[in-house]
Amino acid sequence: MSKKAFLRRYAAVSLAAICLSAPLFSQAAAPALVSKGQLTYGTAATFMPFEFTKDGKLTGFDIDLITALSKKLALTPEPMSMEFKGLIPALQGKRLDIINSAMYINPTRSEQVDFVPYLKIGSRVIVVKGNPEKITGRDLSLCGKNIAVTLGGIEESQARADNQKCLDAKKPALTVLTFPAATDSAVAVAQKRADAEFLSTPGAVALLSEKGDTFEAVGAEFETDTHIGFAVRKGDAEMKSLLEKGLQDVVKDGTYQKLVTKWQFPASVSIF
């Protein structure tokens, strides 16, 4: 065999070997990002202990979680703070890659965005210390009272459903007072402009740990299977898959459970 023929045969065999040794998988397309190398997320930093500002710095469970998740994905987390009601429009307008703001998953929102769930939580009824209105929980003792809730949050729909229960029971209507943030609702209760507030169980834990001399929780936890999640644009399968992978990694290495413990969440919040 001539040297030229040998080299041609060697090249053909080598190419075949390379092709056979190549991994047999198709890599999913990477999601388009607002800024290269960054995970730009929208957050309404008024919902302690999920996202809030302390000493001028953004903090909370969600902030810690997205920081850990972004590290797994080799991306830099980039927050954009805004009012809660502006989050979905900003995501749909491609100003954000995702929403990371303890967003409750419900049918209405699921028609507008896709979700990657990461927690399930319940809610509590919060009243001023001493409970002068003798409210016993999420029951007919709320009838005729002023109930503070976050505008557009699941607590608003819960309170409006409770108002109908009062009317059906031939009791006085309850008044639903809406506020931009849970912190505003708490202030309304402290100032006795509202008789009670509906607040997430983790939020209640944080509020009572800081202001236990001002507030107390009454009655049992309710709606304990309410899921919250990261929101992505409708049909954005690449981003959804990326978040799911990062979330799996922070669960696997124990970071998720450490954050649940750090922020004093009840063990029941875990969905993993």
Produce the secondary structure layout:
Elements: H1 3-21, E1 38-43, E2 46-47, E3 51-54, E4 57-59, H2 61-72, E5 76-81, H3 87-92, E6 98-104, H4 107-110, E7 113-128, E8 146-150, H5 154-168, E9 175-179, H6 182-190, E10 196-200, H7 201-211, E11 215-233, H8 237-252, H9 255-262
Parallel strand pairs: 1-5, 1-6, 8-9, 8-10
Antiparallel strand pairs: 2-3, 3-4, 6-11, 7-10, 7-11
Quick structural gist:
This protein has 272 residues and is of the alpha/beta class. The protein has nine helices and eleven strands.
Distance between the termini: 64 Å
Individual helix count: 9
How much of the sequence is in beta strands? 25-35%
Q: Determine the oligomeric state from the structure.
A: single chain
Which structural class fits the helix and strand makeup? alpha/beta
Task: Work out the radius of gyration.
Answer: 25 Å
Main sheet properties: 8 strands, mixed
Overall average pLDDT:
89
Strand and helix order: HEEEEHEHEHEEHEHEHEHH
Shape field: globular
Unreliably modeled segments: 2-8, 10-28
Helix content: 25-40%
Strand order of the largest sheet: 5-1-6-11-7-10-8-9
Number of strands: 11
Family: Belongs to the bacterial solute-binding protein 3 family.
Domain Solute-binding protein family 3/N-terminal: 38-267
Signal peptide: 1-28
Protein name: ABC transporter substrate-binding protein
